[in-house]
Amino acid sequence: MTNVKRYVKDNRSREREQMMQAVYDFIVGYKDEWGGVSPSLGEIANGCYMSRSNVVRYLDILEARGYIERVHNVPRSIRLITEQDRL
Question: How buried is 72 (Cβ within 10 angstroms: 0-12 exposed, 13-18 middle, 19+ buried)?
């Protein structure tokens, strides 16, 4: 792999991690502000300046990594997983 391709790949990974962190931080802030109620996909999309399809992609990644749980096809069902939940 050339240095340019490696740089592009590393840069994309970094951007993806930053966007995923932004989605997670938005969810945490929203739940704090609204008494534990989860944001909708549209609210996350508006708050993070991205499309709903990107929000779904980042939620899928966060769920796969064990940071959140959600009930599919149920609105506002995002649950944050704490360190204690993982043990």
Answer: exposed
Q: Dihedral sign, CA of 76, 22, 55, 47?
A: positive
Question: Two tokens at 63?
Answer: 């769920």
| Residues whose CB is less than 8 angstroms from the CB of residue 59 and which lie 6 or more positions away in sequence, other chains included | 23, 44, 68, 70, 78
pLDDT at 83: 74
Could you give all domains of the chain from N- to C-terminal order, each with its CATH number? 3-86 (1.10.10.10)
Q: Which amino acid is at 64?
A: A
d(CA 46, CA 53): 12
Contact status, residue 49 vs residue 23, Cβ threshold 8 Å: no
Q: Give tens-digit pLDDT for 1-21.
A: 566 566 556 788 899 999 999
